[in-house]
């Protein structure tokens, strides 16, 4: 998977204390990529935009 053009961002709710954060790249066509901000070279989870929207909506409702 080529993530060269991925533009990673953290949630605005993430602190600056190097805590447990995730970064999201949603600028590549047809996929949303998620990684651990503390291990940027580690594993990347990939979701369809529809699945990612469903996850975000569920998380917001909690």
Please describe what this structure looks like.
The structure is a single chain. The protein is an alpha+beta fold. The protein has a domain at 24-61. Helix content is 21%, strand content 24%. The protein has one helix and four strands; from the N terminus they run ββββα. A four-stranded antiparallel beta sheet has the order 1-2-3-4. The protein is flat, with a radius of gyration of 12 Å. The model has no long low-confidence stretch (mean pLDDT 90).
What labels would you give this structure?
about 20% helix, about 60 residues, alpha+beta
Q: Given the helix and strand composition, which structural class is it?
A: alpha+beta
What is the approximate shape? flat
Tally the helices: what do you get? 1
Radius of gyration: 12 Å
Mean pLDDT: 90
Query: Strand arrangement, largest sheet?
Result: 1-2-3-4
Low-confidence stretches: none
| Biggest β-sheet description | 4 strands, antiparallel
Please provide the ordered H/E string of secondary-structure elements. EEEEH
What's the total count of β strands?
4
Could you tell me how far the N terminus lies from the C terminus, measured between alpha carbons in angstroms?
A: 32 Å
User: Percent helix among the residues?
Assistant: 10-25%
């Amino acid at each position: 998977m080529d993530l060269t053009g991925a533009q990673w961002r953290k949630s605005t709710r993430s602190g600056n204390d190097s805590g447990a954060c995730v970064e999201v790249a949603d600028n590549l066509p047809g996929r949303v990529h998620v990684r651990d901000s503390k291990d940027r070279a580690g594993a990347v989870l990939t979701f369809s935009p529809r699945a990612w929207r469903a996850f975000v909506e569920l998380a917001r409702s909690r």
